[in-house]
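Obj.: predict assembly geometry.
Materials: sequence records (below).
Method: joint structure prediction, all chains together.
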Amino acid sequence: MVKVSNLTKSFGDNLVLDDISLDVKTGENAVVFGRSGTGKSVLLKCIVKLLIPDAGEILVDGKNVHSLKEKDLNELRKEIGFLFQGSALYDSMSVKENLEFPLIRNKKEMSSEERDEKIKQVLKAVDLENVIDKMPDELSGGMKKRIGLARTIITEPKLILYDEPTTGLDPITVKEISELIKELQKDLNVTSIIVTHDLLCAQIISDRAIVLNEGKIIYDGGLENLTKSDDKFLKDFFTNEYSR
Amino acid sequence: MKNNTKEKKPIPFSPTVTSFFEIVAGLTIFSLGFFKEVFSPPYEFAEIKKHIDELGIKTLPIVTVTGFIIGLVLAMQSQPVMSRFGAESFLPSMVALSVVRELGPVLTALIFAGRVSSGIGAELSSMRVTEQIDAMEVSAVHPYRYLVVTRILACTLILPILTLYVNFLAIIGGFIAISLSQGITFHQYIDAVFRSLQFSDLIPGLAKTFVFGFIVGAVGAYKGYNATNGTVGVGRASTSAVVMASLLILITDMVLVKITVIIWSQ
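Observations (raw structure tokens):
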């Protein structure tokens, strides 16, 4: 589903991603770990062409993202969902309008009644049916994440990219949101790449763990082996994560 | 003795000059994008209408007060000077011509810039730093077309209407000042105003408001759309949008006045 080959990205003199390659298969849930500033979010943004890499190739569903024309890129983006770290809800729109926005533009064949039905359906999925007319600033952090998730899945994408979906939330909400993501993935059969620091979230969601350090992939495999690794960096990183 | 002097690369311009040219080039490219995107579907008519309504309502109270005061103060200030030359009867014409040709368009544009350019700058920069613009782009919506084109178009269309309204109020303001001091009737005043005003006075004044409206929208959107540095960037985008838009309005006015003088004098 996603094939990244020899991806390099730097900002000025700061080399963030250094010749990394990875292959995420259809239906797989890959969790990307790494210290802050190691290029995890940059990787996600390169996959949807929010950032242009210095070198390398990214194929999504067999299409080279960075050589597509605008129209074809937008067609591809309709198949991709992106949950931003801060949810990125449109703050001038109500919850309903936020959810309606991608449907009006990307699912033009849907009637107004069908759209309303779909909105109710995703709100039920994230267990927030009662906030449909609220504005984003009236919602709590956890609620925003859930609505962000609802907006991400409303167009039924084949691939979902999660940028720290549980950051800043309490452990109970982390568990709830992680279980929700897992449940949605099971129901919709999507491929996911999840960037997180959160081991609890990763344990619930992941099929595979990838660790980035200093711009390179230093681990790619199962989560169980990762937490038992003898590698000094991995040991330090995950011991600190656990002890928080 | 060891020479520690490092060989420095020559810098052709100071950072301020370089930054100035970067802004000019950036704003030009950004604004030219409008002409490319404005004709590309999908057309966001609902968004344009929403912005026109919002911008109109937002600026209406302040331009109402300003318009009225411009005419009033202009008449009050000019009266002693005009009477010194025995030209008091030209006062209605002087007020009308000054307002319609220059004061109305420029002052409305400056007020509009202060109110709207900063608003657009703040709104878009806040959307930029909270990744709302990225979210839009990822959901296959062209953010420039949806956010920028609609706002620039709304500004370009609403400013001429606001200017006509300000011109009207300023002429009424002028009447009140002149009628209080000279006892002139409304009929006499309007008659004098319309005898002096020609079509060639109204058109250049109104035409340049389209350009001013474009500047206000484009500068506000440029500053907001390209904001960086989090919340600090939001404040910076908002204030620098007002300064840059006001400056550009005045510079453009100078150029446009010269052009209209050349065109209409032929």
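Conclusions so far: The first helix of chain A runs from residue 40 to 47.
To do: check interface contacts against the pulldown list.
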